Amino acid sequence: MFTKGYTKKRSKKDNSPRNPGWFQAGKPSGRSRSQTSIQIPESASASTSCVRQTFQSSDCKIETTGNICTLRSQADADLKREENKALHSGMRWIDSQLTLSLKSGELAGMYTLKCITCGFIGDRIKMYKEIATGKPGPNPGQPNVALASALQDCPIGNTTVQQLLAGMDTPTPCRSSMQRTSSRVAAEMVKLNKTDMAQKLELVKEDNRKRGVPENEINITVDARYNSNTIVSKKKPGQNATQAFALGIETMTDKKYIIAAVVQNKMCWKGAWLRGKGFPIECPGHEECTANLYRAAALSEYKLGKEIGNQLGLQKCLVRYVTTDGDGRSARGIEDALTALEPMWKVERLADDVHLGQSEFRASLRA
Question: What is the pLDDT at residue 257?
């Protein structure tokens, strides 16, 4: 006969299979209300569909319990693998305690196994992979970097993610560590985007070579958008917007690749905090400043267009036609930037379909 085992009915407070009182071989539980002795015959004919295996560690002296017996389907049993796993660090499944720990700033943690009988504690094993940075200090975990990269294209931030994780009863990393990871990921994404836009511009040049036209002459469309519905503010003098974004999209191919991107930003949290503490700090100019425009300066589409022209000029590319809206001056900015590459170069502005139709409609009403 096998070693006798005892089972008990589950209750709401004792509904976890990790509870050591749920199943104990050879020792009845004091909390059990009804116990049933299970006897399994040793004959092969009575247990042809199950595999019996006994685990006993030589490093751990156990007197309170007997050998551990496990029963499962014979087709799903891997005795060699299970024996190596059960005897890891001299511990047995039923006599080990699992301890989880979470480092500050890590979304995933580490676990440690501790033998309840002899007190042996195994090594801490990480439940995540790291990304090598080549810099001093601990390497960031892959889940943290993946979360930070996903938040770059998501309307929520680190604070909202902390609230979501807390709502799922999951330990949350500290916000300062999440912000540092987000800053590093944002810097890497900027580099990747610049490299990708440069590669897309080379594809446009290759397409021009196949067509037999000058490879360095392209046509683009440019438009800017702001982080405000209105330009004029009713509460303060000057513009209401604090950020402006402009994209340069080529119109030579059907793909419509984005080949240039420019951002004007007045906001800097660190500079505002230092000025509130009394430090004579101005943005931009100090360390870790996120602003590239003075907080009282005006957002200008001319400067956005000039920066787009500078980006295209780095790859010896000239713009012949620029399609913009009627109130934009980005075409003039691109022309002034390209004169450094070709002094006699002229850029012609074309009106987009929407503004062209509106201007023609107004002209017909005045006729």
Answer: 94
Beta-sheet strand order (sheet of 5-7)? 24-25, 5-7, 36-38
CATH number of the structural domain spanning residue 246: 3.30.420
Q: Domain range holding 344?
A: 216-366
Token pair for residue 225? 């958008």
Domain count, the chain: 2
How many degrees, rounded to 5, is the angle at CA 353 between CA 347 and CA 356? Answer: 80
Within 10 A of 230 (CB to CB), how many other CB atoms are there?
10
On whether the CB atoms of residues 249 and 221 are closer than 8 A, the answer is yes
CB of 110 closer than 8 Å to CB of 126: yes
State the Cα–Cα distance between residues 96 and 102, nearest whole angstrom. 20
Q: CB neighbours (10 Å) of residue 15?
A: 9
- Tell me how far apart the alpha carbons of residues 95 and 106 are, in angstroms, rounded to a whole number: 29
176-197 pLDDT, tens digit per residue, is 888 888 888 988 999 999 999 9
Last residue in a domain, options 76, 99, 122: 99
